[in-house]
Design a protein that fits this description.
heterodimer; A: 270 residues; MetI-like fold; 2 domains; B: 258 residues; six-stranded mixed beta sheet; four-stranded antiparallel beta sheet
Chain lengths: 270, 258
């Protein structure tokens, strides 16, 4: 196979001498601007006393980090459960949608549109406020994982469907010609290939799930966000805690994106 | 290369493939018009004609990859089932080779060949693997057995696809423009495999633009135009003195490529 062509190579021609000068100049200008902006932010912080020791000193204690760590575990737990559940529900929606029965197709499409259209917060409130009233007591992790999963399932369903549609028609025809039944064609030929196409996108969608689990504070599940709130009220330190927590979320999601990109590259070679 | 010996074709048995008054539409387009065709055991029938004449469609109706509107398709005297288990079982006995090879992209060449016998016929893996390797050797890609399809050349992929079909021990092989997607230097290697198959007595229905192949290997040439069979003839007569005006025009138009 020939060398991989990046989107940039495909969309733009190689910059010439003048273009390179302009690119260089604008890079320098934007770097300077960003540094100035950062200095300004720090100055505003220090003017308002946000850099005072009392807002930061408790980060030196191991208990603080242990507490943040347990919150992180909660976030990971809720995200994994929500991710796996979203995949399962999305898979069911997708199978209904591509089935040969018109009513099922309609139900699948309706579920997909419903879950994609309703904000996650509404699902959270439903599971937090209404479901217990029906006498169903979910463990607290599921009170966040399930609504987040349902909210993401429509998106996953569409993603899976795009993967299935991306498998060339000839693969199905060849499998049918060998005497396979539709179910086997799907499970042995179509779906494994579809999955290969979309696994990178699935991982980057997990970012949305991770961010949605911050609704945990509503249902009192001790995730990163909830524990951050506890730290904030204990030490009366709003900005410093949120800054640290934001950095942790960025790291998690950066990792997910890295996995996604690596898989996309590996998948592209095959 | 020898032309196949016509005398071994028996008239006693029911034809392997028989089409009676087959009609097909794509929307308003009349794709197949009153097709009657009968292919006996061991016969090699080549379908030729201009593009859009319905030859691929005809080929694909035989294992019901395309539905027909009316008429009958019989395989060894039995009516082609509408669907379900019966249709799947019948398709398992009809080999199909596609223009774009359609090897399963996520499986190795060997797995591609083994898939049908193992998954559909539920035969034992060890036994099938031995046979699959022999088949791959026969088509000359045994050294590529453990590679993925995308790592092979088009010609190698198509030969592997033929091996995949043969692994099912088909009663008849359908070839839907098997060399049309190949680079010129790879066409012959695929044709050679097909010629060998024909010489071994395989019943074959071949849609192709390779006139030399038709000349040398076919027992019968079926010329189609605008969805209808215009002329059925022996290759000798068809290429030297076609009966119909339409066939003459067609042969004239492709003269440079023969």
């Amino acid at each position: 196979m020939s060398r991989q062509i990046s989107v940039r190579d495909a969309l733009y021609e190689t910059p010439g001498k003048n273009a390179r000068k302009i690119i260089m100049a604008s890079t320098v200008i934007s770097i300077v601007a960003m540094v100035l902006l950062l200095c300004l932010v720090i100055k505003i912080f220090s003017d308002n006393g946000q850099l005072d020791a009392k807002y930061w000193s408790f980060f030196m204690r191991s208990t603080t980090w242990r507490f943040i760590g347990s919150g992180l575990l909660g976030t990971v737990e809720a995200s994994l459960l929500a991710g796996l559940t979203a995949f399962s529900i999305g898979f069911v929606f997708m199978v209904m949608r591509i089935s040969f029965y018109k009513p099922l197709q309609f139900i699948g499409a309706a579920c997909t549109e419903f879950t994609r259209g309703v904000p996650t917060l509404l699902f959270i409130y439903f599971f937090f406020l209404y479901v217990p009233k029906m006498g169903i007591n979910l463990p607290s992790v599921w009170r966040v994982a399930l609504p987040v999963a349902i909210s993401a399932s429509g998106m996953v369903s569409e993603l899976l469907r795009s993967g299935v549609n991306a498998v060339p028609k000839g693969q199905r025809e060849a499998a049918l010609s060998l005497g396979m039944r539709e179910t086997m064609v799907f499970t042995k030929i179509i779906f494994p290939q579809a999955l290969k196409y979309i696994v990178p996108a699935l991982f980057s969608d997990l970012v949305i799930v991770v961010k949605d689990t911050t609704f945990s504070y509503i249902v009192n599940f001790p995730d990163l966000m909830q524990n951050a709130k506890v730290l904030i009220s204990n030490y009366d330190a709003l900005l410093s805690v949120y800054l640290v927590v934001a950095v942790i979320y960025i790291i998690i999601n950066y990792l997910l994106n890295t996995i996604s990109v690596t898989m996309a590259k590996r998948g592209g070679k095959r | 290369m020898m032309k196949k010996d016509n005398t071994i074709i028996s008239d006693v048995q029911a034809p392997v493939v028989e089409l009676k008054h087959v009609e097909k539409y794509y929307g308003a387009m009349h794709a197949l018009k009153d097709i009657n065709l009968s292919v006996k055991k061991g016969e090699v029938v080549v379908l030729i004609g201009p593009s859009g004449s319905g030859k691929s469609t005809l080929c694909r109706t035989i294992n019901r990859l395309e539905n027909i509107k009316s008429g009958e398709i019989l395989i060894e005297g039995e009516k082609l089932p509408d669907g379900g288990k019966e249709l799947a079982a019948l398709r398992a006995e009809i080999g199909m080779v596609f223009q774009s090879f359609n090897l399963f992209a996520h499986k190795t060449i060997l797995d591609n060949v083994m898939m049908g016998p193992v998954e559909v016929l539920h035969r034992s893996k060890t036994e099938v693997e031995k046979e699959a390797m022999e088949l791959l050797k026969r088509v000359g890609v045994d050294s590529q057995a453990h590679k993925m399809p995308s790592q092979l050349s088009g010609g190698q992929q198509q030969r592997a696809a033929i091996a995949r079909s043969l692994a099912m021990h088909p009663k008849v092989m359908l070839f839907d423009e098997p060399t049309s997607a190949l680079d010129p230097e790879m066409i012959q290697e695929v044709l050679d495999v097909m010629i060998e198959l024909a010489n071994e007595g395989m019943t074959m229905i071949v849609v192709t633009h390779e006139m030399n192949f038709a000349r040398r290997v076919a027992n019968r040439v079926v010329f189609m135009a605008d969805g209808a069979i215009v002329e059925e003839n022996t290759p000798d007569e068809f290429f030297t003195s076609p009966k119909t005006e339409r066939a003459k025009e067609f042969l004239e138009s492709i003269k440079g490529h023969m």
